[in-house]
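Example 3.2
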Amino acid sequence: MAQTGNVRTPGTLLWRRLWRFVGPHKGKLFLVVLLNALAAFADVFSFTLLVPFFNAFFKSDQLLPTTGTIGRLLQSSIGFLLDEQDRMGSLRNVMLIVIGAVTLKNTLVWFAGQVGVKLQEFVVRDLRTAVYAHLLRLPLPWFTRNKVGQIISRVLTDTSNAKTVVTELVTRSLWSGAQVLATLVAMFTTSWRLSLAALVIAPITIGAIQPVLRKLRKGYRTLGNEQGEMTSLVQEVVSGVRLVKSYRAEGREERKFTDKNNAFARGFVKVGRLALLSGPVTETLGTFTAVAILWYGAQLVLVEGTLTGAELLVFLVQVMRLLQPLKQLSQTPAAAQQSLASAERLFEILDSPSETAADRGTRTTASFTRDIVFEHTGFQYTDGAAALIDVSFTARKGEVVALVGASGAGKSTLVDLLPRFIDPTSGRILLDGVDLREIKLDALRTLTGIVSQDTVLFNDSVRANVGFGTPDATQEQLNAAASAANALGFIEALPEGWDTNLGERGTRLSGGQRQRLAIARALVSDPPILILDEATSALDVESERLVQEAIDRLLQGRTVFVIAHRLATIQHADRILVLDDGRLVEEGTHAALLASGGAYARLHALQFDPRPE
């Protein structure tokens, strides 16, 4: 797939850009943070209650410490429930409080998870909508440079992958972060020296996995492209399955897919191998930290006497409780790399200039009353190839202008300039004396109706397809357009008439029926400018005659551009333009061009008198 740029987006910038989609849901985010903070406090508090339990177990003189922050907290919160003379009753009360605190914590975690799921899905919904909306507004050449499968993969797969960032951030990392923060506070209040020793290893852990994270992001980006290639291949084969079968190419196509599938699997295994490194590395370093703390803590208890045995045990429990959220946090960057790689691919679409962004038109309305003038118009592709060279002619209102020439002569490029699917790279096109580039795209395209050689019908009802360009059309208007296109008879004969679903790409209809519906769709909007790209090519002789008669009746007040390969269909055109290698080589009526004996006469002879001269 063609890329919009080769410069990698920094991870911090991607995070900030993704964060913009979280902005509209700040209320839910605040609630998740609050619930997680309260749950973390309840969790740490429940384990702090082990201090009186261990003091009783080791037959300490006092159930609660009389100094320090932990001692003051316990004295103020549960001191009134403890009785030195009834230690078993006191422990019973402590255990009940522990049960209550754990129940509260898990309830808060559950509520936080519910809100977090809503948050992540709404964020991804907004991201997917933004990508799709921008995709619809990209210029036509962008779609010719990019594979359909790659586009589908980005809109659907990459937006789902990007959800991992929000999932990790909201449903896991916030909870893990709150646990770590609350536990650290409890640890520092217990022993700041032990806490500092426990935190020495953190920078080493973070630095150790950074090279892995960089490789992960690169690997996930490659996997995204390979998955898009597989999607593109499947889409092409399914669309062309008739051709595949007719040429007995099933085995060849299977091998092509197998090769891409194997490459994807090998890449996924390689990335998975890297992703699995962060967890073991973090846990190993964490275990080393716990052992070092136990040794140092033993000195504080047995040698210096600045810490009690109960406080050391509670501290060790807190450290061990810290390992899981730390492990989760350490895995978050690794898991986020796939999301960041997908986000990078999504932002390539969002960063591609849309038609509306590039549109410099200022006129919000447009009308057609006189003529369309091409003045030395040329178009050149970005690779330097010229599709049109210095084309000049005038099409007056009400004229039928036919475009003929060999494939690649520039006929489709010329008509694509009219609705500004592309803009000329030299010269200009005037509509009633106004440069088309001065007219906003929406205003200009209300003037044109198009029936292309490649008939496009949607998986929807006949009514929705015929009224696609004019969704508020009345049934009378639909009937009139269908009748003019010689389609009303077969529409009414369908099982559910106008409400019949046509299936994907209208596969339930014959080629001629599909083409007639496309003609009706263009006619129902009643455009002053009609573009027919070999519009009658799929019709039988009788249907072609009736459609041509209908078009002739609709010529009054309308300009029609006809791309035709069969010269018999354009003999009555008011003006015939002959294109050759992007140049306008002849112009005139059918009779005049035949009489001149030039390029048109030679094309006519090849079709109607194919004998060698």
